[in-house]
């Protein structure tokens, strides 16, 4: 019984992948556009700098706070 349900689930998932409209084109399912390479570079750089630097700035603020 368990073997048959796994086969049915696998067939269903394969058919959903095969007939869905998503996939095949890189960047199709991203929530932002990849058309402008300079904009995506700037956004990526800002996100990395803020993500990496914010913990250090928070610690500095807490240490300098009176």
Automatic annotation (TrEMBL):
Bilayer disposition of the protein: Single-pass membrane protein
Span of the signal peptide: none
Primary location group: mitochondrion
Spans through the membrane: 38-59
Domain of life (superkingdom): Eukaryota
Keyword field: Membrane, Mitochondrion, Mitochondrion inner membrane, Transit peptide, Transmembrane, Transmembrane helix
Coiled-coil features, chain-numbered ranges: none
Record bears the keyword Phosphoprotein: no
Pathway(s) annotated for this protein in UniProt: Energy metabolism; oxidative phosphorylation
Subcellular location: Mitochondrion inner membrane
Record's GO cellular component terms: mitochondrial inner membrane; respiratory chain complex IV
Gene Ontology BP term (one): mitochondrial electron transport, cytochrome c to oxygen
Keyword Transferase: no
UniProt family annotation: Belongs to the cytochrome c oxidase VIIc family.
Protein name: Cytochrome c oxidase subunit 7C, mitochondrial
Origin species: Drosophila grimshawi (Hawaiian fruit fly)
Gene that encodes it: Dgri\GH21643
């Amino acid at each position: 019984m368990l073997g048959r349900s796994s086969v049915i689930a696998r067939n269903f998932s394969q058919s959903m992948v095969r007939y869905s409209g998503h996939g095949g084109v890189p960047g199709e399912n991203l929530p932002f556009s990849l058309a402008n390479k300079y904009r995506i570079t700037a956004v990526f750089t800002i996100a990395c700098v803020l993500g990496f630097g914010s913990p250090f700035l928070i610690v500095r603020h807490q240490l300098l706070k009176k």
